[in-house]
Amino acid sequence: MGRTVMEVFADATRAWGDQPALKAKRAGAWKAWTWREYDAELRRAARGMMALGLEPGQGVAIIGFNSPEWFMADIGAIHAGGVPAGIYTTSTPEQCQYIAGHCDAAVVVVENAEHLAKFLAVRGELPALKGIVLIEGDSSEEGVHSWAQLLALGDGVPAADLDARVAAQQPDDVCTLIYTSGTTGQPKAVMISHDNITWTAKQALDTIDVSPGESVLSYLPLSHIAEQVVSVHGPIAAGMTTWFAEGMDQLGDNLREVRPHVFLGVPRVWEKIQAKVMAAGKNNSFLKKKIAAWARKKGLVGGQADQHKRALPLGYGLADKLVFSKVRERLGLDRCRVQITSAAPIGRDTLDFFLSLGVPIFEVYGMSECTGPATISTPDRYRTGKAGWCLPGAELKIAADGEVCMRGRHVFKGYFKNEAATAEALDAEGWLHSGDIGVIDADGFLQITDRKKDLIITAGGENIAPQVIEGMLKAIGAISQAVVIGDKRKYLTALVTLDPDRVAADAQEAGSPAKNASEAAGCATFNAWLMKQVEEVNSRLARVQTIKKVTIIPSDFSIEGGEMTPTMKIKRKVVRDKYGPQIEAMY
Q1: N or C: which end of the chain has fewer CB within 10 A?
Q2: DSSP letter string over 329-398?
Q3: Using an 8 Å Cβ cutoff, are 54 and 130 in contact?
């Protein structure tokens, strides 16, 4: 029996009414909203949207960093029969206009003046738009309402009118749109139903066995399904407290303050934490370095033993006391039971690094089209380098061509206004075709080997999975990002970027005078040193997989540079087009 978002939220309010649901920094201090306060404010916001003219089925576009008001706008819109659509904060005015126009947004909610300006620039192209709500501050612009004004407008709408909208909705109705991050072309709008999101959130949170009152830190883009499951809908189902980071720059400090019980990090976040831990370790005394090296060996053996249900090695407890516990405390992960990675491939080097420090990272595989997780990993059932096992209650299979397919109540209803794309993704038997290539081992663990469309077919007809090789290249400490090139070519090459925090030290080790990535890219000595490390990677690859040449790109790939999506996936076509001359120079 499916449930609506409103039914699950009403249960949460009854069960945990006076317990903290949300916590955010206001004027430098943490402020809490109880479940009752959360419920009351989102209902006022819902009625405010109705006062602005929101009709059932119309869109509500939301742009801004994670905050209680983002949640209230999102869940409030659903209560009012609207369909929220999150927009990445890095989006341009044109991208904002596309999504708001595509979802027929009657209301747009923006965090601040910067995002307001994006919509003021394009609102003439949004015929369905009835009003804009500004979370921070006020505006004298016509049709723009502050958050307080929205709530005041809501007070003029009878509660019974909202109750009628809530009662009219069914579990199978679409309740939110998730726009794909668009590695190619315009983003598609994934239609998620009430049953999709309430069922998936409960299954995921029940499986990792969270308890009411436990904490999660919200900081990843809320326009992405993973963050919505982990920090919005999961806590509603489980009675957890969601804390809000102050920003990406303050993530480290906030982690130490909040000490969450569940923490989701995309691979790039884990890679950056790894780089900082390694940089800090370089400043340790000789004795501390020796102790850390000994502990990490114990940690790696112990981590492998743990996941295969074998006894921990002698000395693991001492290593935990001397090193692991202190690292977890410094990172703010000392209470964390479940450290998750998702949204993009993560390198084995990063997984092993954290495992060696007593911090196993649990991989979850999925996509927007299956409401987030298709697989899950838990502290009592995980494998380093594997993407987990099938979400309980769902189905997972590998098609004849190696494609990963899933079926169940988590699979979306289709793409909004795009029947052709829906037909391509969903087959007649209800299987969702992921576009990923993978294998399932004898223990039921999935391993993703590549994207179907990313497979490189060389001039010699060899099929090469670039992500496997890229993961090995990224394990070279100096390399930040790597993109393997070779489709229809005689041999493979790679474009790489350097870790800016390591360049100077790495250059010194290489005997190069370079002080930054740009100088290193142009230095023959540094390039020769780097190629030696690539040759070490080549020694572990089949001959057709080896990288013959490498070109250093002076600046790291980024969202702003256009090479990465907001979920930190590489846009391969953009990279190939943008760095065409550098690629051709290697052939």
Answers
A1: N
A2: HHHT-SS-SEEEE-SS---HHHHHHHHTTT-PEEE--EEGGGTEESEE-BTTB--TTS--EEPTT-EEEE
A3: yes
241 within some domain: no
Question: Is 302 part of a structural domain of the chain?
Answer: no
- Residue 290, Cβ density class (10 Å: 0-12 exposed, 13-18 middle, ≥19 buried): exposed
Tell me the DSSP string of 249-318.
Answer: GGHHHHHHHH--SEEEE-HHHHHHHHHHHHHHHHTS-HHHHHHHHHHHHHHHHHHHHHHTT-PPPTTHHH
Residue 304 and residue 114: Cα distance in Å, rounded? 48
Asked if 177 and 192 count as a contact pair (C-beta separation under 8 A), the reply is yes
Q: For residue 182, give the 3-state DSSP assignment.
A: coil
Question: Which residues, at least 6 apart from 380, have a Cβ–Cβ distance to it below 8 Å?
Answer: none
Segment 441-485, tens digit of pLDDT: 999 999 988 777 777 878 777 778 788 899 899 989 899 999 999
The whole domain housing 512 covers 455-584
E-strand spans in 88-227? 105-110, 131-134, 144-146, 174-179, 189-193, 215-218
pLDDT at 257: 97
Q: Does residue 100 lie in a domain region?
A: yes
407 phi/psi in degrees, rounded to 5: -145, 145
CA pair distance 411, 63, nearest whole angstrom:
25
Residue 502 CA to residue 491 CA, distance in Å, equals 30
**CATH number, residue 40:** 3.40.50.12780
Reported as a pLDDT band with limits 50, 70 and 90, residue 185 is low
Beta carbons of 479 and 552 less than 8 angstroms apart? no
Residue 184's pLDDT band, with cuts at 50, 70 and 90, is low
Closest CA to 86 of 484, 425, 368: 368
Q: Whose CA is closest to 382, among 405, 359, 404?
A: 359
- CA-to-CA distance for 450 and 480, rounded, in angstroms? 20
Q: Which residues, listed in sequence order, are joined to residue 51 by a DSSP beta bridge?
A: none
* CA torsion through residues 91, 93, 98, 101, sign: positive
Whose CA is closest to 308, among 364, 386, 374? Answer: 386
Min mean pLDDT across 124-138, 187-201, 377-391, 443-457 is at 443-457
What is the residue whose two structure tokens read 């003029």? 156
Please tell me which residue, 24 or 540, carries the higher pLDDT value.
24
Q: In CATH, what number is assigned to the domain containing residue 484?
A: 3.30.300.30
> Is residue 119 within 8 Å of residue 125, measured between CB atoms?
no
How far apart CA 565 and CA 554 sit, in angstroms, is 20
Structure-token match 């930054």, residue found: 516
- Domain count within the chain: 2
Q: Which pairing describes strands 456-457 and 463-464: parallel, antiparallel, or unpaired?
A: antiparallel
Helix (H) / strand (E) containing 22: strand 20-26
> Tokens 């749109």 — which residue?
177
Helix (H, G, I), strand (E, B) or coil at 482: strand
